[in-house]
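Comment thread on ticket #2218

A.B. wrote:
> Attaching the input chain for the structure job we discussed in standup.
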Amino acid sequence: MSTLTLFFLLAVVTPLAYSSFNDEQEWLNKLNELEQIIQKTETPLNSAAAPRATGTTNFSISLECDPKPTSVHQLRPRDIDIVGAMGDSITAGFGIEATSLPGIAVEDRGLSWSIGGEMDLERSITIPNILRRFNPQVKGYALGNNRAPRGDFWFNVAVGGARSRNMPAQARDIIDKMINDSRTNYENDWKLITIFIGGNDLCALNRDTDATPENYVKYLQEALDIMHKELPRTMVNVVEIMEIYVLPEVGHGFGSTPQCRAAQLTFCNYIVSANETEKE
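C.D. wrote:
> Ran it. Output below, let me know if you need it in another format.
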């Protein structure tokens, strides 16, 4: 099998075991807590849908048909044939169009910034929609959400509540999906896989001894090693952990409501309640 070359955009990482069931079950428990908050605060269940993501028309490119590169160091946007994504609820698209607490439970994977393929660039700015300007035949993007009829999530293997320790399992999952998908050429298609993980690791700092910077590096490195061994013609985009400490400072729109504050305490109590010393 040909060698995978890894390209790290914003982070470098190092290997251990993983536990996907516990983290996913914890996420489901949090959603149940959220449902109780909704019932107590009498948040309307039929709130109007939020506007779709704003797109852009300020985008001009040239579709030249040069030969495909043989090295990732020569890779251009138009060479990408397949997109994939690993991560947590953000990549899974939870609450992208939410205007009330119930909307947080909706997975709008088709609008996810790193893997969503809904609409086009004029209406939704996502990596696949940008890449389709260079290569209209790009594959692997997610469509739809988790409501009936369920969408086609394709190579979006993110799971709500996931942490860095779940990345090796997600790496194996995305490899299996790509190998067994008849719509793609596993050996010859160039792939772009985005990994965005870490918010839930930060939220677990005060309650799980496994949530340490050292283990974050280990688990992520294990996932990268798996892909390095198994995935040919692949560029891996590792995105830096988000600035989760700004959560308590959300002070406009829906973010200023008591319901939002209650949801923040449910999903990330440690960060929301942390003092300045703990944040450092």
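A.B. wrote:
> Thanks. Noting for the ticket: The chain has one domain: 20-43+77-246+254-268.
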